[in-house]
Amino acid sequence: MTDQTPAPYAGPKRVLSGVQPSGALHLGNYLGALVKFARLQHEMKTLIFVADLHAITVFQDPALLAAQTREIAAAYIASGLDPKVATIFPQSAVPEHAELAWIFNCVARLGWLDRMTQFKEKSGKHKERASVGLYTYPVLQAADILIYKATHVPVGEDQKQHLELTRDVAGKFNHDFGAPGFFPLTDPLIEGPGARIMSLRDGSAKMSKSDPSDLSRINLLDDEEAIANKIRKARTDPEPLPETLDELKERPEARNLVGIYAALDGRTDVQVLAEFAGQGFGAFKPKLADLAVAKLGPVGAEMRRLMADPAELDRILKAGGEHARAIAAPTLREVKEKVGFISAGWL
Length: 347
Ligand code: AQP
Known about the structure:
mainly alpha, Tyrosyl-Transfer RNA Synthetase, 2 domains, 3-stranded parallel sheet, two-stranded parallel ribbon, 5 strands, 6% strand, globular, binds adenosine-5'-tetraphosphate
């Protein structure tokens, strides 16, 4: 009897993730992604890119895109990512992402993409007007991850379905091309406080760059007054905070503010409730505002300092791109061999 279990991936552990330069970064991006990047860089090799190829799946003003890319790089560094430890680079500087994405377009199935809820949400009622890139976005994401054979991807909860597709692509490629264990079945790192930060105006919608209401999110570049004002105006209810999480089930806005407090303070929701149970939002919101200002104020200030020196950010991004390419190119060559492009030796 033969063993049917595919060979596990035996390569080194690597972290890969990125954020799109598609608008102002907010608290959700920070807690769901950026703080995790900074933590992981000391545990395994970490590559963090600015997802400019993903950003243009919806129109971006070309005159602004470079500045937005630098802003994301500044946010990474201000959140604790050290360019001497982690590799920080623009996605478009490594053409291997796009080349592998094409090969993966031929591996992924239409039925898999048809199930992606983010495309449905982002394309809205007029999906025939959405770009083809927006539809195949998760395939490019699979290429972003697998070109580095990344084993761990820190992201917010909204990316869970896309990462499942990455595992499907890896598994199908390994199977179809007789290469068990060639690509890892990547693990998403989602859990923990901050994985899903909701809008300050609507506890059922995630905090998002593209929400038309600026009051719905706390931007990393908001000043202290704006942060405090947005928390003051955050939608809540008249009830005091309860003793148990169970009692917050039907109170999404209250649940969200407790979650934000916990994530910013490095505590659990239960610990936050233990401190504030019985208190109303008149008492809780000022405490949350003080905490948010104390945690986010220095991040915004450091971003501004870094953005004042675009040449230095460009230097970091260029060096990162060269380093990333040195890892990506051999993987693409191996892929080409497996697919059959290199059998005659002309590449
Ligand atoms: N609300 C959120 N809570 C926790 N994590 C979040 N992330 C985004 N929103 C939240 C995480 O941030 C990372 C980067 O996201 P992205 O910019 O690449 O794309 P996105 O998920 O589409 O982010 P936005 O802010 O919602 O942008 P728009 O409005 O343009 O779609 C990802 O790890 C994501 O999970």
